[in-house]
Design brief:
- The protein folds into three domains: 279 residues, Rossmann fold, CATH 3.40.50; 109 residues, Tetratricopeptide repeat domain (Serine Threonine Protein Phosphatase 5, Tetratricopeptide repeat); 81 residues, Tetratricopeptide repeat domain (Serine Threonine Protein Phosphatase 5, Tetratricopeptide repeat, Alpha Horseshoe), CATH 1.25.40.
- The protein has a seven-stranded mixed β-sheet with strand order 4-3-5-2-9-10-14, sandwiched between helices. A three-stranded antiparallel β-sheet has the order 1-11-12.
- The protein is elongated, with a radius of gyration of 28 Å.
- A hairpin with a 6-residue loop joins strand 6 and strand 7.
- Helix 11 packs antiparallel against helix 12 and helix 22 packs across helix 23.
- The chain is built from 25 helices and 15 strands.
- By secondary structure, it is an alpha+beta fold.
- Helices cover 49% and strands 10% of the residues.
Length: 632
């Protein structure tokens, strides 16, 4: 069912490319996107579509040549509080963006939310999420000194397009007592500055409508679809004029057909330059769109991560021969992410089918090709691990702003694995990834601050970084946040919240979180009721995915008969599987079984061998057993 949303969207956009006659795009394209939805009900009516409007528009921009690190998006559901759509943060982040824009650059700014106009006041106002109707200082003026138009007029960007979805006739909710104390009208007198072309969502007195089946404003739905080139016929170029024509025609027809109402966008312009090319669509290789969606979901770039959904997109692309998607499928099999059974042999078979193509792409300078080839060399998915090749490929991918390459290199510098141990470089790379919107970047920063690696120890800062990653739906961030609540690191201990966050990660099939949650139930820690049955269930879920942490803890349950009948043979099998994956605790437990002859004939030499491997990884109990067995 469709319903009207009395919204205002102001999108200030520069055109995305050079004039039609140009052979290549000059300058750099930037975007600044803001969505305001959850207003104070005593002030303004909450809106259903602004966040989706800007998130979907961001995807369209990414699909037409914008780079992720050139797009800033603020809305009231962002995990990083720096990017909440409050007035001070909107103006601060916009000013930071405008500072770096050069004459040949282009700009997109999208503001989706309420707009108001006061009787007797020439200026219209955009309402940030913290707006108070009876205090204009909390609103963002469109006109006048320091207003949005003024900022844009002074911006050096070569071309600017203003898209305004302004419906000012009834922004207030039934609870908005503040609205009764101010005089609002529907005057439409915004003066578009010189150098900007503009399209408004509707004529004065009309409403801007929302369709809950699409979860988008109807006008903005057609802005997005036109921008993506969906309405092009027989030509792969989207010009400013064709964009205007498509949005006007499609919005008018859609609202009339869907709702029997009238909504007609209006074009205004103060731009006198030549023709503009908004974007150029091209036929993508088979599986490319599915791969892109999977990649964003996999690494949490410009959308909340979802490893299970990401894997489905990768499989879809892999079925039509997409090399990078096939490499991701192999990677999931290798690591056991997304609820997959860890299968190194299967991963090797899958990876081998696309390694020649990935090698070719990497050698041609393709950044993703370099990343995937480096990850194969790092993990030894196909063939032996090759440190030199892995590091060289990752460095090249980092230079091309491949975000997962940044977090992988950060971890290598943190561990001193294949590269010199360099906490400062790890910090720099995690910070860079976090700035590009990577939840793993924030999780990595949390780890550094929690343990004081390369920075002064700051558990409160660590908690905040974990919280950002967790609220971005990153499973390892949720698991880390659960651990903070469990141990009281950076926040007062709260076992119930620990369980909640571990459960969120476990629901995403994060095996480490499943096992940690199982340990809480097994111990009945911090006021959480002891529940061995639930503990075993969680251990088994992880163990069945061939996760060594889960296998070791399920083996311990069988060894002691906790929640299951005591069964040394079952315990031995689980410890053997975990030890084969180089799990230090599994090696210790298996050593104990051989030393004591539990489920297997006693074998002192085998026990010592396993204790040595475990001790080398820092397991103190293994060190103690070696001293006992080897004597003083």
């Amino acid at each position: 069912m469709s319903r009207p949303a009395l919204t205002m969207l102001v999108a200030v956009a520069s055109i995305l490319a050079a004039p039609v006659s140009a052979s290549a795009q000059d300058g750099t394209s930037y975007a600044f996107l803001v969505g305001c939805s959850s207003y104070d009900r005593t002030q303004l009516r909450p809106l259903p579509s602004p966040i989706n409007d800007v998130e979907e528009f961001k995807k369209a921009l990414l699909g037409t040549g914008f780079e992720a690190d050139h797009i800033k998006m603020l809305h009231d559901k962002q995990g990083d509080r720096r990017f909440l759509s409050e007035k001070a943060k909107i103006l601060k982040e916009l000013a930071l963006l405008l500072e770096g824009i050069r004459p040949n650059d282009t700009l997109v700014v999208a503001l989706s939310g309420h707009g108001v106009h006061f009787k007797g006041d020439r200026t219209g106002y955009f309402c940030p999420v913290d707006a108070k109707l009876n205090d204009k200082n909390t609103l963002i003026a469109m006109e006048g000194p320091g207003g949005l138009f003024d900022l844009l007029k002074n911006c050096k960007a070569r071309r600017k397009l203003l898209i305004v979805n302004a419906c000012r006739n009834d922004p207030s909710s039934d609870l908005a007592q503040a609205a009764n104390k101010v005089n609002l009208d529907d005057e439409d007198g915004d003066q578009v500055p010189e150098g900007i072309a503009a399209i408004y969502s509707c004529k004065q007195g009309q409403k801007s409508y929302y369709d809950d089946r699409r979860n988008l404003g109807i006008f903005f739905d057609h802005v997005i679809r036109s921008w993506k080139g969906e309405y092009l016929r027989g030509d792969n170029e989207l010009t400013l004029e064709s964009f205007f024509d498509q949005v006007i025609t499609k919005t008018k027809t859609d609202v009339d057909k869907t709702l029997g109402e009238s909504q007609i966008p209006v074009v205004r312009r103060e731009y006198t330059g030549g023709a503009w090319l908004l974007s150029e669509t091209r036929k993508l290789p088979p599986g490319e769109m599915a791969f892109r969606q999977g990649f964003r979901l996999r690494y949490g770039l410009d959308m909340k991560p979802d490893l299970v959904a990401a894997l489905e997109f990768f499989r879809e692309a892999s079925r039509v021969g997409h090399a990078f998607a096939t490499a991701e499928v192999a990677g999931f099999s290798h690591t056991g992410d997304g609820g997959q059974v860890r299968d190194r042999a299967g991963s090797r078979r899958i990876g081998a089918t696309v390694l020649p193509e990935i090698t070719r792409l990497a050698r041609s300078g393709d950044g993703l090709g370099q990343y995937y080839l480096a990850m194969n060399a790092l993990l030894g998915v196909v063939g032996d691990a090759n440190a030199k090749e892995a590091v060289a490929g990752l460095k090249s991918a980092v230079d091309k702003k491949i975000v997962p390459a940044m977090t992988t290199m950060a971890q290598l510098h943190l561990d001193g694995d294949m590269v010199p141990k360099d906490p400062a470089e790890a910090l720099r790379l995690y910070q860079r990834a976090a700035e590009l919107g990577s939840p793993e970047g924030h999780r990595g920063l949390g780890h550094l601050y929690e343990d004081g690696i390369g920075v002064a120890r700051d558990t409160a800062r660590a908690f905040r970084e974990y919280q950002i990653a967790a609220e971005m739906n990153w499973p390892s961030g949720q698991s880390a946040l659960g651990r903070c609540y469990s141990t009281g690191s950076g926040v007062p201990a709260d076992p119930q919240k620990a369980v909640e966050w571990y459960q969120k990660a476990a629901d995403q099939k994060d095996n480490r979180a499943r096992t940690r949650l199982g340990l809480i139930y097994a111990a009945g820690a911090g006021g959480v009721a002891r529940n061995q049955d639930e503990a075993v269930k969680l251990f088994r879920l992880a163990a069945d995915q061939n996760d060594p942490f889960g296998q070791t803890n399920l083996g311990i349950a069988y060894r002691f008969g906790n929640g299951v009948p005591r069964d040394y043979k079952a315990a031995l099998d689980l410890f053997t599987r975990a030890a084969a994956q180089d799990d230090a605790q599994g090696q210790y437990q298996l050593g104990w079984m051989y030393e004591k002859g539990l489920g297997v004939a006693p074998n002192r030499e085998r026990a010592i061998e396993l204790y040595r491997k475990s001790a080398a990884e820092g397991v103190n109990r293994a060190v103690e057993r070696l001293k006992e067995l080897n004597g003083p």
